[in-house]
Amino acid sequence: MPIDYSKWDRLELSDDEDFDCIPQVDKASMIRWRQAQTHLVRRERKDKIAALKLEVDKVNNPLIATLSTTNSESLFTSLDTIASSFALVQKNIQSEVDQFRIVDRSPYWEPPQPIPMVEERIDVEKLLAPLRLAGNNGEKELAVKNAIEIIEKRNEAIAQDIAKEEAEANKKITSENMFHETSNKTVITKQTTTPLPELTESEKPKKKKTATIETIHTPSASAAAEPSATTTEPTADDADEDEDEQMITYEPAAQFGRLTSLESSRSFIGKHPEIVTEKFSDEILTQAFTVQMDAAKAGLNTKEGKRLSKEARNYVTQSLLLQYCKVLGKDGVSLFFKRMENPQHAARVNFYDDVEKTYTRIRDRTRELQKQKDEEEAAEKRAVEERVKVATQEDGSYALPLSDDPTDLEKERARVFAEFPKEFQYAILTQDVEEINKVLATLEKDTAEFWLQECDRVGLISLQEEGTEEE
Predict the structure, then answer these.
(1) CB–CB of 334/303 below 8 Å?
(2) Cβ atoms of 309 and 289 closer than 8 Å
(3) Which of 200-204, 309-313, 457-461 has the lowest mean pLDDT?
Protein backbone atom coordinates (compact mmCIF):
# COMPACT_ATOMS: atom_id res chain seq x y z
CA MET A 1 0.00 0.00 0.00
CA PRO A 2 1.56 3.34 -1.03
CA ILE A 3 2.19 5.95 1.63
CA ASP A 4 0.43 9.28 1.16
CA TYR A 5 2.83 12.15 1.72
CA SER A 6 0.50 14.83 0.36
CA LYS A 7 -0.28 16.29 3.78
CA TRP A 8 3.30 17.53 4.02
CA ASP A 9 2.57 19.81 1.06
CA ARG A 10 0.73 21.97 3.60
CA LEU A 11 3.78 22.38 5.79
CA GLU A 12 4.52 26.09 6.27
CA LEU A 13 8.25 26.78 6.14
CA SER A 14 9.87 29.79 7.78
CA ASP A 15 13.57 30.37 8.42
CA ASP A 16 14.70 27.47 6.22
CA GLU A 17 12.51 28.52 3.28
CA ASP A 18 14.42 29.30 0.13
CA PHE A 19 13.39 32.72 -1.20
CA ASP A 20 15.03 35.55 -3.07
CA CYS A 21 15.99 38.64 -1.10
CA ILE A 22 17.14 41.95 -2.57
CA PRO A 23 20.85 42.70 -1.90
CA GLN A 24 20.09 45.85 0.13
CA VAL A 25 18.26 43.84 2.81
CA ASP A 26 19.94 41.43 5.20
CA LYS A 27 18.37 38.00 4.66
CA ALA A 28 18.37 37.12 8.37
CA SER A 29 16.46 40.34 9.12
CA MET A 30 14.01 39.57 6.31
CA ILE A 31 13.42 36.09 7.73
CA ARG A 32 12.70 37.53 11.20
CA TRP A 33 10.32 40.07 9.67
CA ARG A 34 8.48 37.35 7.71
CA GLN A 35 8.20 35.23 10.86
CA ALA A 36 6.83 38.17 12.86
CA GLN A 37 4.26 38.90 10.15
CA THR A 38 3.19 35.25 9.98
CA HIS A 39 2.62 35.05 13.73
CA LEU A 40 0.84 38.43 13.73
CA VAL A 41 -1.65 37.21 11.11
CA ARG A 42 -2.31 34.05 13.14
CA ARG A 43 -2.83 36.08 16.33
CA GLU A 44 -5.18 38.59 14.68
CA ARG A 45 -7.21 35.73 13.19
CA LYS A 46 -7.46 34.04 16.60
CA ASP A 47 -8.55 37.30 18.30
CA LYS A 48 -11.13 37.99 15.59
CA ILE A 49 -12.73 34.55 15.96
CA ALA A 50 -12.85 34.91 19.76
CA ALA A 51 -14.45 38.37 19.54
CA LEU A 52 -17.12 37.22 17.06
CA LYS A 53 -18.00 34.19 19.20
CA LEU A 54 -18.40 36.46 22.23
CA GLU A 55 -20.83 38.64 20.27
CA VAL A 56 -22.94 35.65 19.23
CA ASP A 57 -22.98 33.97 22.65
CA LYS A 58 -23.46 37.04 24.88
CA VAL A 59 -25.45 39.47 22.72
CA ASN A 60 -27.07 38.11 19.57
CA ASN A 61 -28.46 34.79 20.85
CA PRO A 62 -29.71 36.24 24.19
CA LEU A 63 -31.30 39.14 22.29
CA ILE A 64 -33.14 36.73 19.97
CA ALA A 65 -34.34 34.78 23.02
CA THR A 66 -35.57 37.99 24.66
CA LEU A 67 -37.49 39.11 21.59
CA SER A 68 -38.91 35.64 20.99
CA THR A 69 -40.03 34.63 24.48
CA THR A 70 -41.05 37.91 26.12
CA ASN A 71 -44.78 38.59 26.36
CA SER A 72 -45.76 41.05 23.59
CA GLU A 73 -47.05 43.82 25.85
CA SER A 74 -44.33 43.49 28.45
CA LEU A 75 -41.73 43.53 25.63
CA PHE A 76 -42.93 46.86 24.25
CA THR A 77 -43.12 48.47 27.68
CA SER A 78 -39.56 47.44 28.57
CA LEU A 79 -37.71 48.42 25.37
CA ASP A 80 -35.62 51.03 27.21
CA THR A 81 -34.52 48.48 29.78
CA ILE A 82 -33.67 45.93 27.09
CA ALA A 83 -31.70 48.49 25.06
CA SER A 84 -29.69 49.76 28.04
CA SER A 85 -29.01 46.22 29.32
CA PHE A 86 -27.65 44.92 26.02
CA ALA A 87 -25.71 48.14 25.41
CA LEU A 88 -23.97 47.52 28.73
CA VAL A 89 -23.23 43.91 27.73
CA GLN A 90 -21.70 45.13 24.45
CA LYS A 91 -19.61 47.64 26.37
CA ASN A 92 -18.27 44.91 28.67
CA ILE A 93 -17.51 42.65 25.69
CA GLN A 94 -15.57 45.46 23.97
CA SER A 95 -13.52 45.97 27.13
CA GLU A 96 -12.82 42.22 27.32
CA VAL A 97 -11.76 42.13 23.65
CA ASP A 98 -9.50 45.18 24.04
CA GLN A 99 -7.90 43.53 27.06
CA PHE A 100 -7.10 40.12 25.55
CA ARG A 101 -5.85 41.72 22.31
CA ILE A 102 -3.01 43.56 24.11
CA VAL A 103 -1.89 40.56 26.19
CA ASP A 104 1.23 38.61 25.16
CA ARG A 105 1.88 40.63 22.00
CA SER A 106 5.31 40.49 20.37
CA PRO A 107 7.38 43.71 20.50
CA TYR A 108 7.78 43.38 16.73
CA TRP A 109 4.06 43.94 16.19
CA GLU A 110 2.17 47.19 15.94
CA PRO A 111 -0.62 47.91 18.47
CA PRO A 112 -3.96 46.16 17.74
CA GLN A 113 -6.06 47.81 15.05
CA PRO A 114 -9.91 47.76 14.89
CA ILE A 115 -11.32 44.63 13.23
CA PRO A 116 -13.93 45.70 10.62
CA MET A 117 -16.14 42.61 11.01
CA VAL A 118 -16.19 43.02 14.80
CA GLU A 119 -16.89 46.76 14.55
CA GLU A 120 -19.99 46.01 12.43
CA ARG A 121 -21.82 44.62 15.46
CA ILE A 122 -25.54 45.33 15.78
CA ASP A 123 -26.57 48.69 17.25
CA VAL A 124 -29.26 47.58 19.71
CA GLU A 125 -30.80 51.05 19.95
CA LYS A 126 -31.26 51.26 16.17
CA LEU A 127 -32.50 47.67 16.05
CA LEU A 128 -35.28 48.42 18.55
CA ALA A 129 -36.23 51.79 17.00
CA PRO A 130 -38.90 50.29 14.65
CA LEU A 131 -40.47 48.51 17.65
CA ARG A 132 -40.97 51.87 19.36
CA LEU A 133 -42.84 53.19 16.32
CA ALA A 134 -45.09 50.15 15.91
CA GLY A 135 -48.79 50.88 16.45
CA ASN A 136 -51.26 48.00 16.33
CA ASN A 137 -50.54 44.36 17.11
CA GLY A 138 -49.87 43.51 13.46
CA GLU A 139 -47.17 46.16 13.18
CA LYS A 140 -45.64 45.05 16.46
CA GLU A 141 -45.40 41.40 15.36
CA LEU A 142 -43.84 42.45 12.05
CA ALA A 143 -41.32 44.72 13.81
CA VAL A 144 -40.26 41.91 16.17
CA LYS A 145 -39.97 39.47 13.26
CA ASN A 146 -37.79 41.91 11.27
CA ALA A 147 -35.55 42.55 14.27
CA ILE A 148 -34.99 38.82 14.78
CA GLU A 149 -34.23 38.36 11.07
CA ILE A 150 -31.57 41.11 11.24
CA ILE A 151 -29.87 39.37 14.17
CA GLU A 152 -30.06 35.96 12.46
CA LYS A 153 -28.50 37.40 9.30
CA ARG A 154 -25.71 38.85 11.41
CA ASN A 155 -25.18 35.44 13.03
CA GLU A 156 -25.05 33.80 9.59
CA ALA A 157 -22.46 36.33 8.41
CA ILE A 158 -20.40 35.70 11.55
CA ALA A 159 -20.63 31.92 11.09
CA GLN A 160 -19.44 32.22 7.49
CA ASP A 161 -16.59 34.53 8.48
CA ILE A 162 -15.47 32.22 11.30
CA ALA A 163 -15.61 29.21 8.94
CA LYS A 164 -13.53 31.14 6.40
CA GLU A 165 -10.94 32.15 9.00
CA GLU A 166 -10.71 28.62 10.43
CA ALA A 167 -10.32 27.17 6.93
CA GLU A 168 -7.53 29.67 6.25
CA ALA A 169 -5.87 28.73 9.56
CA ASN A 170 -5.95 25.04 8.65
CA LYS A 171 -4.51 25.48 5.17
CA LYS A 172 -1.00 25.16 6.54
CA ILE A 173 0.43 22.76 9.10
CA THR A 174 1.73 24.87 11.98
CA SER A 175 2.80 24.31 15.56
CA GLU A 176 -0.74 25.24 16.61
CA ASN A 177 -2.64 22.61 14.62
CA MET A 178 -0.24 19.76 13.82
CA PHE A 179 -0.56 18.03 17.19
CA HIS A 180 -3.70 16.59 18.78
CA GLU A 181 -3.41 15.62 22.41
CA THR A 182 -4.38 12.02 23.24
CA SER A 183 -2.96 11.83 26.76
CA ASN A 184 -0.84 13.93 29.05
CA LYS A 185 1.33 13.58 32.11
CA THR A 186 2.62 16.18 34.54
CA VAL A 187 6.16 15.90 35.88
CA ILE A 188 7.18 18.40 38.54
CA THR A 189 10.86 19.34 38.37
CA LYS A 190 12.96 21.59 40.51
CA GLN A 191 12.66 25.27 39.66
CA THR A 192 15.80 26.33 37.80
CA THR A 193 14.91 29.86 36.76
CA THR A 194 16.98 32.64 38.28
CA PRO A 195 14.86 34.77 40.61
CA LEU A 196 14.82 38.54 40.26
CA PRO A 197 17.24 40.36 42.58
CA GLU A 198 16.12 41.40 46.05
CA LEU A 199 14.84 44.98 46.15
CA THR A 200 16.42 47.58 48.38
CA GLU A 201 14.28 49.38 50.94
CA SER A 202 13.97 52.41 48.64
CA GLU A 203 12.79 50.21 45.74
CA LYS A 204 10.15 48.26 47.63
CA PRO A 205 6.55 49.40 47.07
CA LYS A 206 5.07 51.34 49.96
CA LYS A 207 2.47 49.63 52.09
CA LYS A 208 -1.11 50.75 51.74
CA LYS A 209 -4.05 50.94 54.05
CA THR A 210 -7.00 48.69 53.27
CA ALA A 211 -10.53 50.05 53.29
CA THR A 212 -13.77 48.20 52.67
CA ILE A 213 -16.42 49.08 50.15
CA GLU A 214 -19.96 48.25 51.16
CA THR A 215 -21.89 46.78 48.25
CA ILE A 216 -25.45 45.86 47.57
CA HIS A 217 -24.65 42.30 48.62
CA THR A 218 -23.69 43.39 52.16
CA PRO A 219 -26.11 46.22 52.88
CA SER A 220 -26.04 46.45 56.64
CA ALA A 221 -24.07 49.00 58.63
CA SER A 222 -21.92 46.17 59.99
CA ALA A 223 -20.69 45.26 56.51
CA ALA A 224 -17.18 46.36 57.43
CA ALA A 225 -16.87 43.25 59.57
CA GLU A 226 -17.71 41.00 56.60
CA PRO A 227 -16.49 42.84 53.48
CA SER A 228 -17.58 41.60 50.06
CA ALA A 229 -14.91 43.58 48.24
CA THR A 230 -11.81 45.53 49.18
CA THR A 231 -9.92 48.43 47.71
CA THR A 232 -6.68 50.21 48.62
CA GLU A 233 -6.39 53.67 50.06
CA PRO A 234 -3.06 55.17 48.93
CA THR A 235 -0.93 57.30 51.15
CA ALA A 236 0.09 60.79 50.06
CA ASP A 237 3.54 59.59 48.96
CA ASP A 238 2.36 56.89 46.59
CA ALA A 239 -0.89 58.39 45.27
CA ASP A 240 0.63 58.88 41.84
CA GLU A 241 2.03 55.35 41.66
CA ASP A 242 -1.21 53.32 41.77
CA GLU A 243 -1.49 52.67 38.05
CA ASP A 244 2.19 51.78 37.74
CA GLU A 245 1.90 49.15 40.45
CA GLN A 246 -1.20 47.68 38.85
CA MET A 247 0.21 47.38 35.31
CA ILE A 248 3.95 46.82 35.92
CA THR A 249 4.75 43.82 38.08
CA TYR A 250 8.37 44.66 38.98
CA GLU A 251 9.13 47.90 40.84
CA PRO A 252 12.49 48.65 39.13
CA ALA A 253 10.72 48.29 35.76
CA ALA A 254 8.08 50.75 36.97
CA GLN A 255 10.81 53.16 38.04
CA PHE A 256 12.52 52.79 34.66
CA GLY A 257 9.26 53.61 32.89
CA ARG A 258 9.18 56.99 34.63
CA LEU A 259 12.73 58.02 33.65
CA THR A 260 12.89 60.88 31.16
CA SER A 261 16.46 60.94 29.82
CA LEU A 262 18.76 58.59 27.93
CA GLU A 263 21.58 59.09 30.43
CA SER A 264 19.47 58.14 33.44
CA SER A 265 18.03 55.17 31.49
CA ARG A 266 21.50 53.89 30.64
CA SER A 267 22.66 54.21 34.25
CA PHE A 268 19.51 52.47 35.53
CA ILE A 269 19.88 49.53 33.12
CA GLY A 270 23.46 49.15 34.32
CA LYS A 271 22.13 48.61 37.84
CA HIS A 272 19.12 46.50 36.77
CA PRO A 273 20.02 44.61 33.55
CA GLU A 274 17.24 42.10 34.31
CA ILE A 275 14.59 44.57 33.09
CA VAL A 276 15.77 44.26 29.45
CA THR A 277 13.09 41.69 28.55
CA GLU A 278 9.99 41.53 26.37
CA LYS A 279 7.86 41.06 29.49
CA PHE A 280 8.75 44.40 31.07
CA SER A 281 8.76 46.18 27.71
CA ASP A 282 5.19 44.99 27.11
CA GLU A 283 4.10 45.95 30.62
CA ILE A 284 5.46 49.48 30.21
CA LEU A 285 3.72 49.79 26.82
CA THR A 286 0.47 48.62 28.41
CA GLN A 287 0.96 51.30 31.06
CA ALA A 288 1.31 53.86 28.27
CA PHE A 289 -2.06 52.75 26.90
CA THR A 290 -3.65 53.01 30.35
CA VAL A 291 -2.28 56.50 31.02
CA GLN A 292 -3.35 57.67 27.55
CA MET A 293 -6.87 56.39 28.27
CA ASP A 294 -6.86 58.61 31.36
CA ALA A 295 -5.71 61.51 29.19
CA ALA A 296 -8.56 60.91 26.74
CA LYS A 297 -11.00 60.83 29.65
CA ALA A 298 -9.66 64.09 31.06
CA GLY A 299 -9.67 65.73 27.61
CA LEU A 300 -6.57 65.92 25.43
CA ASN A 301 -6.69 69.73 25.32
CA THR A 302 -6.99 70.17 29.08
CA LYS A 303 -4.02 70.78 31.36
CA GLU A 304 -4.41 67.35 32.97
CA GLY A 305 -4.89 65.68 29.58
CA LYS A 306 -1.69 67.24 28.23
CA ARG A 307 0.24 66.16 31.33
CA LEU A 308 -0.99 62.59 31.04
CA SER A 309 -0.33 62.50 27.26
CA LYS A 310 3.27 63.57 27.91
CA GLU A 311 3.57 60.83 30.54
CA ALA A 312 2.14 58.22 28.13
CA ARG A 313 4.58 59.26 25.39
CA ASN A 314 7.45 58.84 27.85
CA TYR A 315 6.27 55.31 28.70
CA VAL A 316 6.24 54.50 24.96
CA THR A 317 9.81 55.78 24.67
CA GLN A 318 11.01 53.65 27.59
CA SER A 319 9.17 50.57 26.32
CA LEU A 320 10.71 50.82 22.83
CA LEU A 321 14.12 51.52 24.38
CA LEU A 322 13.97 48.12 26.10
CA GLN A 323 12.72 46.49 22.89
CA TYR A 324 15.62 47.88 20.84
CA CYS A 325 18.21 46.86 23.45
CA LYS A 326 16.75 43.35 23.54
CA VAL A 327 16.56 42.93 19.75
CA LEU A 328 20.12 44.15 19.19
CA GLY A 329 21.45 41.07 20.99
CA LYS A 330 24.08 40.41 23.64
CA ASP A 331 25.70 43.86 23.43
CA GLY A 332 22.42 45.55 22.58
CA VAL A 333 22.48 48.02 25.48
CA SER A 334 25.93 49.50 24.75
CA LEU A 335 25.29 49.41 20.98
CA PHE A 336 21.95 51.21 21.31
CA PHE A 337 23.21 54.03 23.51
CA LYS A 338 26.36 54.46 21.40
CA ARG A 339 24.21 55.06 18.33
CA MET A 340 21.90 57.39 20.24
CA GLU A 341 24.82 59.63 21.25
CA ASN A 342 25.03 61.00 17.69
CA PRO A 343 22.01 63.28 17.01
CA GLN A 344 22.44 62.76 13.24
CA HIS A 345 22.72 58.96 13.35
CA ALA A 346 20.04 57.22 11.29
CA ALA A 347 19.35 54.80 14.15
CA ARG A 348 18.43 57.70 16.46
CA VAL A 349 16.12 59.20 13.85
CA ASN A 350 14.46 55.82 13.25
CA PHE A 351 14.01 55.23 16.97
CA TYR A 352 12.21 58.50 17.65
CA ASP A 353 10.17 58.07 14.48
CA ASP A 354 9.08 54.65 15.82
CA VAL A 355 8.19 56.28 19.16
CA GLU A 356 6.07 58.92 17.43
CA LYS A 357 4.20 56.39 15.27
CA THR A 358 3.54 54.06 18.20
CA TYR A 359 2.32 56.86 20.44
CA THR A 360 0.09 58.26 17.67
CA ARG A 361 -1.60 54.87 17.20
CA ILE A 362 -2.19 54.58 20.96
CA ARG A 363 -3.50 58.16 21.17
CA ASP A 364 -5.92 57.70 18.26
CA ARG A 365 -7.19 54.35 19.54
CA THR A 366 -7.76 55.58 23.11
CA ARG A 367 -9.52 58.68 21.80
CA GLU A 368 -11.90 56.47 19.81
CA LEU A 369 -12.48 54.18 22.80
CA GLN A 370 -13.26 57.15 25.04
CA LYS A 371 -15.66 58.52 22.44
CA GLN A 372 -17.50 55.19 22.37
CA LYS A 373 -17.56 55.10 26.16
CA ASP A 374 -18.98 58.64 26.36
CA GLU A 375 -21.70 57.76 23.86
CA GLU A 376 -22.61 54.60 25.78
CA GLU A 377 -22.75 56.48 29.09
CA ALA A 378 -24.93 59.17 27.50
CA ALA A 379 -27.28 56.49 26.15
CA GLU A 380 -27.42 54.82 29.58
CA LYS A 381 -28.15 58.19 31.21
CA ARG A 382 -31.00 58.84 28.76
CA ALA A 383 -32.42 55.40 29.50
CA VAL A 384 -32.37 56.12 33.26
CA GLU A 385 -34.05 59.48 32.76
CA GLU A 386 -36.73 57.82 30.63
CA ARG A 387 -37.42 55.19 33.33
CA VAL A 388 -37.76 57.87 36.01
CA LYS A 389 -39.96 60.02 33.76
CA VAL A 390 -42.35 57.15 32.99
CA ALA A 391 -42.64 56.22 36.69
CA THR A 392 -43.16 59.81 37.95
CA GLN A 393 -46.76 60.63 38.92
CA GLU A 394 -48.48 64.03 38.92
CA ASP A 395 -48.01 64.44 42.68
CA GLY A 396 -44.26 63.73 42.41
CA SER A 397 -44.42 60.16 43.71
CA TYR A 398 -43.24 57.10 41.78
CA ALA A 399 -45.20 54.09 40.51
CA LEU A 400 -44.20 51.31 38.16
CA PRO A 401 -46.20 51.43 34.90
CA LEU A 402 -48.24 48.35 34.07
CA SER A 403 -49.00 46.91 30.62
CA ASP A 404 -52.55 46.79 29.27
CA ASP A 405 -52.84 43.18 30.37
CA PRO A 406 -50.45 42.90 33.33
CA THR A 407 -49.23 39.53 34.53
CA ASP A 408 -49.31 38.48 38.18
CA LEU A 409 -45.57 39.11 38.42
CA GLU A 410 -45.97 42.66 37.11
CA LYS A 411 -48.72 43.36 39.64
CA GLU A 412 -46.65 41.92 42.49
CA ARG A 413 -43.59 43.91 41.36
CA ALA A 414 -45.59 47.15 41.32
CA ARG A 415 -47.06 46.37 44.77
CA VAL A 416 -43.63 45.72 46.32
CA PHE A 417 -42.21 48.84 44.68
CA ALA A 418 -45.06 50.99 46.05
CA GLU A 419 -44.32 49.91 49.63
CA PHE A 420 -40.78 51.34 49.59
CA PRO A 421 -39.97 54.96 50.59
CA LYS A 422 -39.49 57.45 47.76
CA GLU A 423 -35.69 57.69 48.04
CA PHE A 424 -35.35 53.90 47.70
CA GLN A 425 -37.80 53.88 44.78
CA TYR A 426 -35.65 56.46 42.98
CA ALA A 427 -32.50 54.41 43.64
CA ILE A 428 -34.19 51.33 42.15
CA LEU A 429 -35.32 53.23 39.07
CA THR A 430 -31.80 54.55 38.44
CA GLN A 431 -30.17 51.20 39.35
CA ASP A 432 -27.53 53.24 41.17
CA VAL A 433 -25.70 50.86 43.52
CA GLU A 434 -24.27 53.71 45.62
CA GLU A 435 -27.71 55.23 46.17
CA ILE A 436 -29.19 51.81 47.01
CA ASN A 437 -26.41 51.14 49.53
CA LYS A 438 -26.85 54.60 50.98
CA VAL A 439 -30.49 53.89 51.81
CA LEU A 440 -29.84 50.35 53.02
CA ALA A 441 -27.07 51.55 55.35
CA THR A 442 -29.67 53.48 57.37
CA LEU A 443 -31.69 50.33 58.08
CA GLU A 444 -31.40 47.49 60.54
CA LYS A 445 -29.65 44.44 59.10
CA ASP A 446 -32.79 42.26 59.06
CA THR A 447 -34.86 44.97 57.40
CA ALA A 448 -32.24 45.63 54.74
CA GLU A 449 -31.93 41.92 53.97
CA PHE A 450 -35.75 41.59 53.71
CA TRP A 451 -35.94 44.51 51.28
CA LEU A 452 -33.24 43.00 49.10
CA GLN A 453 -34.91 39.58 49.11
CA GLU A 454 -38.22 41.15 48.08
CA CYS A 455 -36.52 43.13 45.28
CA ASP A 456 -34.78 40.02 44.06
CA ARG A 457 -37.97 37.95 44.22
CA VAL A 458 -40.00 40.27 41.97
CA GLY A 459 -37.10 41.28 39.70
CA LEU A 460 -36.49 44.85 40.84
CA ILE A 461 -32.85 44.10 41.68
CA SER A 462 -30.75 41.13 40.58
CA LEU A 463 -28.52 39.75 43.34
CA GLN A 464 -25.39 37.69 42.64
CA GLU A 465 -23.06 35.91 45.01
CA GLU A 466 -19.51 37.27 44.95
CA GLY A 467 -16.33 36.08 46.56
CA THR A 468 -14.07 38.33 48.60
CA GLU A 469 -11.23 39.88 46.65
CA GLU A 470 -7.92 40.31 48.37
CA GLU A 471 -5.09 42.55 47.30
Answers:
(1) no
(2) no
(3) 200-204
